[in-house]
């Protein structure tokens, strides 16, 4: 990659977005909710590292900071994709989709 391509590269998010995510992660409300849902405190370290790397990129165009941001975003996307959907997606509508609903008839569960 030549110098002009490196200069044109932008982080996937603005540095303020990383800082906002870090502040949200550290907020009392989020920590309380996370502890209630998962039984542990959330780790906000990655958001702070991403913010630091973003600032480092903005100031010094550090290649290490750029690669760290790219890797962090890839990991975040991969983490979101690894969960299977809760609902089974239909390929076609039900055969009786056009019929009126029968309110007294119990539905399949």
From TrEMBL:
Alphabetized InterPro entries for the sequence: Pants/Emi1-like (IPR021475)
CC terms in the record's Gene Ontology section: synaptic cleft
Bias (Basic and acidic residues): 89-109
Location of the protein in the cell: Synaptic cleft
Region annotated Disordered, chain positions: 83-109
UniProt similarity note: Belongs to the UPF0545 family.
Name assigned to this protein: Synaptic plasticity regulator PANTS
Gene name of the encoded protein: c9h22orf39
